[in-house]
Amino acid sequence: MPHKPFKAVIPAAGLGTRFLPATKAMPKEMLPVVDKPAIQYVVEESVKAGITDVLIILGRNKNNIANHFDAMPELEEKLRQKGDLDKLAKVEHSSELADIHMVRQGEPKGLGHAVLRAEGHVGDHPFAVLLGDDLIDERDPLLTKMLEEYDKRTATVIALMEVDPEHIHLYGVAAVEATDEDDVVKVTQLVEKPSKEDAPSNLAIIGRYVLGPDVFRILERTEPGKGGEIQLTDALEELATGGGDGGGVYGVIFRGRRYDTGDRVDYIKAIVQLASDREDLGPQLRPWFKEFAATL
């Protein structure tokens, strides 16, 4: 029988310490990427893939995220009176984008714990997890492919990306076997943040997952792992090695454009690339970038 509709879960409870002092009072997911907060790109990605029921996992002092997706009648009315319909449409877009819900994590106990906080909302639906500071360029769709693979295999699907072995210790890493489909692999082992010498491959998990509700049962008994946190990777490792009710774990290898807006350098790169590619900004920016680059 067909499964229930997908829901989306966006963990956004991290402290954002790499961006202090900017994130002392502002969530890192609300830092602007050109003229939209990073988390709006993630919600738009979910909607584009057909998932409009979105749960955002909030931490302390992150009310700005909820406010951003709420309607603002006073601002909307002022823009309407001024006849600034373009800005009005942008403001209304964020509040009409999806059916957005919020739940608090309380204290940051790891990604696995954040996902577990979604159980009451997700119930027995399959769901996608999209990390709130991990942007996938809309020109390189990933989530749609992952949902298709879940439907095809009734199995957990994670996004993988080849990374430089020197940076592999920053990621969860997968050991894989080939399938009969290009860039789709069967995951046989997952290791959280291994050393370069211990990594089973150079395929790192990036911030997109499609999970069945059986993952909650596993997360409930998952002990804290690296960093004293409940790691989603540890639960996925159990699924990959035969635990749970699904058909194992598969990986979709992503070869497109991804921006880690939780990293300062990648955050700046994201702004530069996305702004230079836009029709309204690119024609003015690209000549300036060339002139500036020539002075370096």
TrEMBL record:
GO MF term (any one): UTP:glucose-1-phosphate uridylyltransferase activity
Keyword Methyltransferase tagged: no
Pfam families registered for this protein in UniProt: NTP_transferase
Keywords on record: Nucleotidyltransferase, Transferase
SUPFAM superfamilies linked to this entry: Nucleotide-diphospho-sugar transferases
InterPro entries linked to this entry: GalU_uridylyltTrfase_bac/arc, NTP_transferase_dom, Nucleotide-diphossugar_trans
Catalytic activity: alpha-D-glucose 1-phosphate + UTP + H(+) = UDP-alpha-D-glucose + diphosphate
GO biological process, one term: UDP-alpha-D-glucose metabolic process
Residue ranges annotated for the Nucleotidyl transferase domain, each copy included: 7-275
EC number: 2.7.7.9
The protein's enzyme class: transferase
Family, per entry: Belongs to the UDPGP type 2 family.
Protein name listed in UniProt: UTP--glucose-1-phosphate uridylyltransferase
Species for this entry: Microbacterium hatanonis
Gene label: galU
